[in-house]
Write a structure and sequence with these properties.
By secondary structure, the chain is mainly α. It has ten helices and no strands.
Length: 275
């Protein structure tokens, strides 16, 4: 029974990692067009959608509340995380501070490793006591917020009403987080009442460490492609996969392409008789 449960956990973690890699690097073209055409409500919706598909953020939140048994503790730690990511999300967007999104996501992945290691008592094995978890959650919140700001700045925010757009996006992030958090707390509350919780909790948090490590390697792999694309055997412009740049440059239309006409190639051609 425990082995079957372990396999299910590992499968879910693997799925979340892959989904995180697919979604963590930003918003789809449809979302970009929506935010261009819509108002503040669209920013709110996209913020909520981004949080619910940002599994690196959700894995970290899951690790935070894993062993919290009281409502006051959940509120305290989630508030620290929320204040942290709200500070950098708003301030970095207003001031135009950006970082490489692969690198910031790599650090976010390490935060997942950190919370998993904390939950298995890893720090207490080597030190007299663990680092202050509340401060750690707040600091990692600042880092998560910088990642969220980097995503938001990939979109045209305009000059007028930018503060309301940022706040709407931030509110959407919080609504998405609350929705996911309610589900997590409910599942954990039910799970803690079973005999398997203490037996599997260590495995689950080791799974968080593995998930964070996997995400870290994938983000660094993506950063390698953007920093030194020629070392991978093909140019960056031809490197199309799910973790390519969000900052896709608008391609220049080929003359005549709007009429379905393909320009002839003027380069000399070799025919069998020419050989």
């Amino acid at each position: 029974m425990n082995k079957l449960f372990l396999k299910k956990i590992l499968f879910v973690i693997f799925f979340l990692c892959m989904a995180s890699f697919a979604f963590a690097h930003g918003m789809s073209e449809a979302e970009k067009q929506t935010i261009l055409d819509g108002g503040n409500l669209q920013y709110l919706k996209i913020g909520a959608s981004h949080m619910l598909t940002g599994y690196d953020h959700l894995l970290f939140v899951f690790g935070i509340v894993f062993f919290l048994t009281t409502f006051s503790d959940v509120v305290k730690y989630i508030t620290a995380f929320t204040v942290g990511h709200s500070i950098t999300l708003i301030s970095a967007t207003l001031t135009g501070v950006t970082v490489n999104y692969f690198l910031i996501d790599a650090v976010i992945a390490l935060s997942v490793c950190y919370i998993g290691y904390e939950n298995i008592g890893g720090f207490r094995k080597f030190f007299d006591k663990s680092p202050n978890l509340l401060w750690a959650v707040f600091i990692f919140g600042l880092i998560h917020g910088l990642g969220l700001s980097t995503r938001l700045q990939q979109l045209p925010l305009g000059d007028e009403g930018i503060v309301l757009r940022i706040l709407s996006f931030n509110l959407g992030i919080e609504l998405g987080q609350i929705s996911a958090l309610c589900l997590m707390v409910a599942l954990l509350f039910k799970w803690r009442r079973t005999q398997s919780f203490l037996q599997i909790s260590n495995v689950s948090n080791n799974g968080l460490i593995l998930a964070g490590g996997f995400l870290f390697l994938m983000q660094m792999h993506g950063y390698g492609h953007t920093a030194q694309p020629d070392e991978f055997g093909f140019p960056e412009d031809n490197h199309f996969h799910v973790h390519e740049k969000m900052e896709t440059l608008a391609s220049t239309p080929t003359p005549g392409s709007e009429y379905g006409i393909v320009p002839e190639d003027d380069s000399p051609k070799l025919f069998p008789n020419d050989l």
